[in-house]
């Protein structure tokens, strides 16, 4: 799932004005900030604007601020917005009427843009971005997008230490202004700041701004320094994010940890909302891959995952302290499944020394599928090296080598023995499927993934597509029906498209569908409907009832409609690639007599990975539940006239 975080990141080392000493690590700091956002917080690159050196002129910064933040329709009110600046700060003499009130300051702090203190034709000398302009810009942004704005400054404006230690100038993110004058402050003022009295005398450091939260490298008279590791403040900030869980850390707590890493400067945090969790918790949502763990009366570890999700005796998991995305979550123990039930399992620790808390979370690391997934590796002259690297991680025998996949996978030499064949090409991974559930051995190319990732996805897909309860307790008691829906009236057609669990449909990209599930058993059931696409090995849960419902959605002798088109039940639709004439998809129904976490099997580019609200302490009843599956195979045929 794309994190709802948007950022404008600015880093300037090399300045246009020859009188300004260049810095050494602001660009690196900015790039490291972007790397943290993309890799650790899962922020898509197109939600980040990075302005470095000559790209960070005053005009470019202001234009990007408007285009990427203020006028960006993708940003919704409450989304997290980060504005980061690493570069020089400076001051200019204050114009006579700049401040209101008694004892006004004599200087105005500014952020030094790339073209600060240089002349721009037709505009005179550029005087950077003043605090008055910056506050007006953020105020405009806050009116439209809310107050979840974090302003991070790694610079300083009037470091007292500079005057007594000029030799440290090249390591201090401050510069004197020699060309720009007070007149240029008014000339470059942000439009909404004009005519608005400047009543604050605290520069970039208002005590309780309501529009944003400020994280700064130092106070108004402090020094922001840099060293071999980069800006000391930014380096400490990024170090803390890698060393501690931050999903429940407030801005105040966070800056306290950052300050402990700094010896020569005092980081500060200001804002009305400084006691909020970082970014108001937007990036830190529950991750569906983590499963609740609790301790029963006999002190055994019980994990809320069982046979319905594909767990078997010998499956392996790691134990973690929380289940939130984008927050450090190292493993505290490794466990192996010792006893499997339909919807839960008992596990035992691999180490006698591991102390596992009463409430924690588990993540499956090895499924221990009984039948290995079989892969034939096909090399070409141009792909030999790439295939050789992949071959090292897929053994020919179960006890040979170290498998890097999370399922048991074996390499075979004959196509007749294989589930898939794989060739790693330059433009993607080419996969040929030999699955009996498919009507043809279709060849697909999967991009932006390594060969090992594709094999892992394919193995999990195969596991969840084919597994079923061998006892088949609901045999002939559950029936699935698929109907066309009228897009205007939302009335479903009379004819059921499924016959013996299969349907052949002439593809219409505008068509929508509804599914009816009939329960002829004497059990109240919790149904979970998964959409499975063998072209990308994506698994998406289309229907996952909240466990808080309390009452099973599919009562005994009753029925349930999924995709009615009404509020809360979005109609089902299917998409074929433009070059597909014939394709097969699957709708797999998982059924249980108690609520379970089926979203943990999801995979693929559209997966949101946001877990449902399961409590960490679930009822520890030992009564076995019942589970089963049903599946519909849908073959789409594109009419030749539409090709």
From TrEMBL:
GO biological process, one term: proteolysis
Any one of the GO CC terms: cytoplasm
Gene3D superfamilies registered for this protein in UniProt: 3.40.50.1460
Superkingdom to which the source organism belongs: Eukaryota
Gene Ontology molecular function terms on file: cysteine-type endopeptidase activity
Record domain Peptidase C14 caspase: where: 5-266
Pfam families referenced in this protein's UniProt entry, alphabetically: Peptidase_C14
PANTHER family listed in its UniProt record: METACASPASE-1, METACASPASE-4
Family that this chain belongs to: Belongs to the peptidase C14B family.
Protein name, per record: Peptidase C14 caspase domain-containing protein
Species assigned in the record: Crucibulum laeve
